[in-house]
Design brief:
3 copies of one chain form a homotrimer. In chain A, 49% of the residues lie in helices and 7% in strands. Chain A is of the alpha/beta class. Chain A folds into 2 domains: 349 residues, Metal-dependent hydrolases (TIM Barrel); 101 residues, Orthogonal Bundle (uronate isomerase, domain 2, chain A), CATH 1.10.2020.10. The longest helix of chain A has 22 residues. Chains in contact: A-B, A-C, B-C. Chains B and C meet through helix 4, helix 6, helix 15, strand 9 and helix 18 of B and helix 16, helix 17, helix 18, helix 19 and helix 20 of C. Chains A, B, C: Pathway: Carbohydrate metabolism; pentose and glucuronate interconversion.
Chain lengths: 480, 480, 480
C-alpha cells in the first residue's frame, strides 16, 4: 500500500541552489493568510454551517476536474453519482462511486488534481496512505467519520484554513440571502459576494428570461426600458457592495466591447427584450454591456473581471442529460486587441478603473495581454486560469507576462474554485510556483534576493488587496 | 577528425538528481521492443528483402528533413540526387551528393536530424568518427560495403531493431500486394498496413481521378453512387484489416467534419464525381467523409487517426519540377473545437471509438486538444508530430497536455517515418524525453517514483497497444 | 541603500555543469565587437557629436519601454518629461521626472529594462549603488557631470563600446544629411543607413502626402506614374547604398504580398495617388509593394527585412496628445504562410535574395516561420523582436526555431534600439542567452563542445555579416 506524504520541497525546481532560494522565499509566505477574491464556493455552507455528508458528495460529484477526466476514459457520470440535469441524483451508491474513483486514481497522475487531492487527503484529513482501490473504503469511512465532527463543519474549516477573505459569485437575480444570513449570524468569517450579471446580459443564456424577472423584482426598476435596465444594474451593484462585493465578473465567449450611441442602445435593447435579437445582435448587446459595466465601475469603483473564451456545453448529448458545468467546456482562440478597443477608447486611461483580464488562450500572454496591461492604466492581468491553474500553466504565465507587463500589473492568485477543501492546496501550489519562478530569477542574477523577498509578499498579499480594493485586516502579515 | 559516440546520458536533463532518476527510468525501457503503429516505410522492402545500394539512396535522397534544410541554404535538389517529378533521377553521382551533404553536416546542429543521423551512424553502422567533408568517402564506402552483407537486408535489420510491429500506410487504391507477399513468404516479422483513403476522398487531390478507378476495381463496388462509394470503403477497410490494419489515417488541411442529411450527401457526392464541386463543396465533402469514417470506425473498431494542418506543396516551382513530399509542406493554424463538433455530436460519447488527434499547431495543445481529449471518451492525443517530433517539441507536448489530458489520454510514440534505419533512433529519443519529463515530475515531488516507473511502461508499450488495438505478443516485456 | 553590481554569471542557467559550459562559451565572445545591423539611433548624434544634457533626456524620455510601464501604473507622460505631439515639451523639471522614475524603479523588476538599466548604470557610468528614491539625485547629478566630459560624447562612446558597425533607419524622404556629414567629418566610426520606405508606400500612413513630395524631390522622378514611382525607389535605394545601406526595412500590420499584372498595378497606383484608395486597396498596394521591394532586392542585393504585426497607436487619446511611438503599439496575430505566397512564388527560390522575417507573434515560430525558413532559400529568421527581445523571449526563440530551421537560417542579434547607451547591454544579454542555450545542448549531449564553440562565433559575428552582406573589417575577431 503506497504511503502518502507531502514533501516539503514539492514543486520547487530541482537545481539545489535554486531550490534553496525557493525554500527561503516560501518560508516567508507559507503561513500567510488566504485571500480568495474570486471563486465559486456556496455561501449557504457558511450561512447554515451544516455538515457535509460523505466523500463522494463533498469531493467527487461537484468537481468537474475529476469527473471530466474519468468521463474521458469511458466512465459514465451516473456511476460517479454526478447529479443529472435539474439536480436529479442518479441511483448510485456514493460508496460505489468513491470506489470507482479510487480505482482510477492513476488517471490523474501529472495533473493538478493529483496535487490538490493529496494535499486535502494528507493535510485536511490526515491520511498517510495513498488513495487507490485497496484503500477506497478506508478513505470513505474515515472521511464520513470526520465530517460529522464539529471540526469539519464549513466555518471551522474556514477558520482552520486561515482565510482572511473569501469571495463567492452570485448572479444578478440572486437575493443574497445566504450572505445576509452570514452577517446576521454574528460569525466573523469574511465571506463576500461578487456581481456576475451574465444571465441578465446574455440574451442567449438559458436562464435569461427567468433571471430578468428576478432582476426586475429585486431591483424594483422597470427593466424593460434601457434606462431602467441600467438603473437596475446600478441598484444591484449597490446591493452586492452591501454584501461586501468589491468586484464584478463577466464571462462571455469573446471580449468584444462596443460604444453605441444611446438611440442605438435603446433599439438594440428593445430587440433583446422582445426576444427578436439574432446571434449578431446578441453579441453586440453583450459587447455594449461590457462597456456599460466598465462605465459603472468607473462610477462605483468596483473591480471588473473578464473571463472570456470558453465554449460552454460543447457536448450536446451530455448537456441534454446533465446540464451545465459538466466538464464539457472547451477553450477557443480569443482576441483582445481589437475587441477591447471601444471600451478602452472610453475608459482605458481612467486612473482608478481596474479591469482584470483572464484568458484560456495562452498565446495571448506575450502577444496581447502583457503588452496591453503594460500600457493601459486600467488593465491588470488575472492569474493563470482554469485549465492553466496548474504548475506548468502558472510557470508559463510568469515566464510569458513578466518581461512585458512586470509583476505589478498582475493581481496575485485566484483559486476560482467550488471545491472548498482544496483552497489551501491551490494557494499553496501558487505560492510554491511563484517562489520557484522568483528563485530562478535570483539564481540567474536577474533579480536581487531582497527584491524577490519583497515581491513574494506582493504576489501573495499586497497586489491582491490592491487589485480588489481590499483593506488589510488589523491582524497583519508579518514578514518571516 | 572529430570522434563520434552516443553519450549514455544524452537528452536527459542536466541537473544531477533529475538525471539520475531519468537514467533509472530509462533503464526499464531502453530495451523494450519497438512498436511502430504509424509510419511510412515501404512494405516492398520487407516483401522482397532486396538490399539497399548506397548511402545517398538509403539515407539522403528519401529524407525530406535532410534535403529541405540543405535546400534552404541554397543547395539544389538535383545536386543531392533527389528524384524529380515522376521519379526521374537527376544525373548526379550519388557519391558526389553524399560528399555535398557531408560538407554541410553542420547545418543540422541542434536539429533532431542530427541526433537521428549520429544514432544511425554509430549504432547501425558502427562509425566512431563524425561525418564531415573529410570522412565523407570513408562513410560512403563503409556503408556501401555493409549494405551488401546479409546483416543489412531489410528483414535482418527489422529483427535486429527488435520491432514487435511496424505499420505502413497505403492508399485506398493499393492492392496490398507487398503485404500479401510478406505473409506468403513465411517470414514472421509483423508488418501491417493502415487505411489512408485521402486520394479517393479529396476531390482536389492530384491522384483523385486515377485512384477512384483503382478503388472501384479493387472493391468491386459501384463507386459512382453514394451508397456504393461508402460500401467500397467498407470493403477496402476489411481488405486492409485482413493485412493487419487496426487503424485508418486522414490528412486534410482542416479538421472540419459535417453531418449532412442523406439526400444532401448524395447531391454533394454527385457533384464531386462529376468534377463540378467547387472549393467549398470539396471541403464539405472531405468534412462529411471524416464523419463517415468515424461511423465506420464505430462499426468495425478501427482506430481513426487525423493528421491535419499541412499546407502541402507550398513552393509552386519546386512542386512543378519535383512533385510532392519535397520538404515544402508548411503548417497552418488549425482549429478543432468547432470543426470536430458535428462528428462529436454523433459519436463523441461512443465508448469504443478511438479517434487520435495530431497537430502541427502547438498552440492547440493547451487550448483545444488537451481539453477535448480530457473530456470526450473517443478522443486521444497523438504524440508530437513531424516538425515537433524533436526533443523540444516532445517536451512541450508533455508540458502542455499532461495537466489537462493526463498521460492516459495519450497514445505513446509514433515514428511516422519513411527512414527505416532511423526508427530505433527516433524511439530512443522519445523514450529519453519521456523519462526526462517523468524524472522532473519526480524530482519536483509531483509524482511518486513508483508512479513514474509504471508510467514509463505505459508510454512505451501499454498505451500504444491500447490505442491501436494491438495484442501483446507471447514474448512480453519484462519490467527491469 | 542596496548596492549595484553586475554578476559575471548573470543570465546563465543555474545548473552548475551547464553554467560552467556557458561561462566558457561566453568567454569566447564577451569581447567581440558589436555589429548592429538594425536599429533606430539618431545619426545626428554621430554627425554633430554634441553632448547629451541630462539623465531624463538621455535615458528616460526617449525610452518607450520605460515610460509605457510607468504609464500603465497611472503615471502621466507629462510628469516624465516625455514630449507631446510635435515635440512640444511639457513644463516638467527633468530632475523631478527622474526622481519619479527612480521612485518607481521596482516596477521594472523581472523585465529586460531592469537588466539594461543596471548595465548602463554600472558599466557605462560606474555606479555601485542601485537607483531608487534615495539615490535619484546622486544619479542625476553624476550623469549630468559625466555627460559634459568628452568621454561621454556620442563618438567617444561609440568607440568605447567597440561598435564595428551601426545601422540607423531612415525614411524614403530623408536627405541623409547626417550620414553625409559623418562621412565628410573624417571620423572613422562606421554608421550606415537602412532604407525604410513605409511612409511613401502606405497610403494610410499619416506622413504619406508629405513624404511623397520629399520622395519626388530627392529622387528627381515623376512619382505620379507607376513607372516613375518605382524608378524613384530604385534611385533612393542607390542613394542609401551610397551611405552604406545593405538593407531595407518594412513594417506593415500584415505580411501580405501580391503579384498583380502591370495594368492592375497602374490602376491601383492611380487610386492611391488620387487619395481614393479604400482600406482594401491600401492593403493591396502595400502587398504589391512588398513584392516590388523583393524584386528590387533581387536586382540590387539589398537584404529585405519585414517587421510586421504591430497595431500602431492603439490608445486613441494618447495618440492625439502625444503622437506616435509612445508605448501604445500592441501586437496582433500574424499570418505568413498564405500572405507571403505571391512573393515566394516569384522569388522564393532566388539563391541570392535574403528576406529576414521578424514576428511579434511567437506562435508562428514553430508553426510557420521555422518551417518556411527551413525550406525557402531566400528566407531567414530575424531574432526575437521588441516585446520578445528579453531573456525569456530569446530563449523561446531558440527553443522554438532551432530544431526546424537550424542555427544557420538565423541572422544573429539586432538591438533595434534608439537607446544608444543600452546597446552593449542588449548585445551582452543576447550573447549570454545564446551561450546558455548552447550550453544546455552540450550538457544534454545534443551538441559537441567544439560545435558549440563554432556556433557561438557564428551567432555573434559570422551569421550577422552573411545576412546583411557585411565585410569583416581588417581587425578581425580572434577566437578566445
Amino acid at each position: 500500500m503506497p504511503s502518502l506524504s507531502l514533501h516539503p520541497d514539492r514543486l520547487f525546481p530541482a537545481d539545489p541552489s535554486t531550490r534553496a532560494i525557493a525554500r527561503e522565499l516560501y518560508a516567508q509566505v507559507a503561513d500567510a493568510p488566504i485571500i480568495s477574491p474570486h471563486g465559486h464556493t456556496d455561501p449557504e455552507w457558511f450561512a447554515t454551517d451544516a455538515p457535509w455528508t460523505n466523500a463522494t458528495e463533498l469531493l467527487l460529484a461537484p468537481d468537474h476536474y475529476l469527473f471530466r477526466m474519468l468521463y474521458s476514459q469511458g466512465i459514465a457520470l451516473d456511476e460517479l453519482a454526478v447529479p443529472r440535469k435539474g439536480g436529479v441524483m442518479p441511483k448510485t451508491d456514493p460508496r460505489a462511486a468513491w470506489r470507482l474513483f479510487a480505482a482510477n486514481r492513476h488517471l490523474f497522475r501529472g495533473t493538478p488534481s493529483s496535487m490538490w487531492l493529496d494535499h486535502v487527503f494528507a493535510d485536511v484529513f490526515g491520511f498517510d496512505v495513498a488513495l487507490d482501490a485497496t484503500t477506497a473504503d478506508q478513505y470513505y469511512d474515515a472521511i464520513a467519520e470526520a465530517l460529522v465532527s464539529p471540526a469539519f463543519r464549513p466555518r471551522a474549516l474556514f477558520e482552520r484554513f486561515d482565510i482572511e477573505l473569501l469571495a463567492t459569485t452570485e448572479g444578478a437575480g440572486d437575493d443574497l440571502k445566504h450572505h445576509k444570513a452570514i452577517r446576521a449570524s454574528g460569525w466573523e468569517g469574511k465571506v463576500v459576494t461578487t456581481y456576475r450579471p451574465d444571465s441578465v446580459i446574455d440574451p442567449e443564456h438559458d436562464s435569461f428570461a427567468r433571471d430578468i424577472v428576478r432582476f426586475a423584482q429585486l431591483s424594483g426598476e422597470d427593466v424593460h426600458s434601457w434606462k431602467g435596465y441600467l438603473a437596475a444594474h446600478r441598484k444591484r451593484r449597490a446591493d452586492f457592495r452591501a454584501m461586501g462585493a468589491t468586484a464584478t465578473d463577466h464571462g462571455f465567449l469573446t471580449t468584444r466591447t462596443a460604444n453605441l450611441a444611446n438611440a442605438e442602445c435603446e433599439a438594440l435593447f428593445g430587440k433583446v427584450m422582445a426576444g427578436s435579437a439574432d446571434a449578431q445582435e446578441a453579441e453586440l448587446f453583450r459587447a455594449q454591456m461590457l462597456t456599460e459595466m466598465a462605465r459603472m465601475s468607473v462610477e462605483d469603483g468596483m473591480t471588473m473581471q473578464i473571463h472570456p473564451g470558453a465554449t460552454r456545453n460543447h457536448n450536446a448529448r451530455l448537456f441534454e442529460s446533465h446540464g451545465r458545468d459538466k466538464g464539457a467546456d472547451i477553450p477557443r482562440a480569443t482576441e483582445y486587441v481589437e475587441a477591447l478597443r471601444p471600451m478602452l477608447d472610453l475608459f482605458g486611461n481612467e486612473p482608478d478603473l481596474k479591469v482584470i483580464l483572464f484568458t484560456l488562450d495562452e498565446t495571448t500572454y506575450t502577444r496581447e495581454l502583457a503588452p496591453l496591461a503594460g500600457h493601459y492604466p486600467c488593465l491588470k492581468l488575472g492569474p493563470a486560469w482554469w485549465f492553466h491553474d496548474s504548475p506548468e500553466g502558472m510557470r508559463r504565465f510568469r515566464e510569458m507576462t513578466t518581461e512585458t507587463a512586470g509583476f505589478y500589473n498582475t493581481v496575485g492568485f485566484n483559486d476560482d474554485t467550488r471545491a472548498f477543501l482544496s483552497i489551501p492546496a491551490r494557494h499553496d501550489v501558487a505560492r510554491r510556483i511563484d517562489c520557484g519562478f522568483l528563485a530562478r530569477l535570483v539564481a540567474e542574477h536577474r533579480l536581487a534576493d531582497w527584491e524577490a523577498a519583497d515581491l513574494v509578499q506582493e504576489l501573495t498579499v499586497g497586489l491582491v488587496r490592491k487589485a480588489y480594493g481590499l483593506k488589510a485586516p488589523e491582524r497583519e502579515v508579518e514578514p518571516a
